[in-house]
Amino acid sequence: MLSGSQLLAITSRLEGGSNALSEAIAARVPVLSTRVDGSVGVLGADYPGYFPVGDAAALAGLLDRAETDGRFLAALRRGVERAGPLVDPAREREAWRALLGELAP
Description:
This protein is mainly alpha-helical. It contains 5 helices and 3 strands.
């Protein structure tokens, strides 16, 4: 369902690193998110799709902008694509291999 979506809105008040965000990145779906540490840690401080926690009017404004401003939507896509390597399966397998290698006697 997510991969067929035009946009994902993450409205968390507190998030350590959303599975939904990782799935959106993997599917290359642009994201609008509350400015919470988990999203900022993954997408970067300069990602253009943040809005303040609890600010429905700001979210509505970003939704309208994403629908009417092609350059803004393209900037959201570029930001999500930049984060793509973070959810690359090969990178994750290698990270697990390295961690387990450190733990093995």
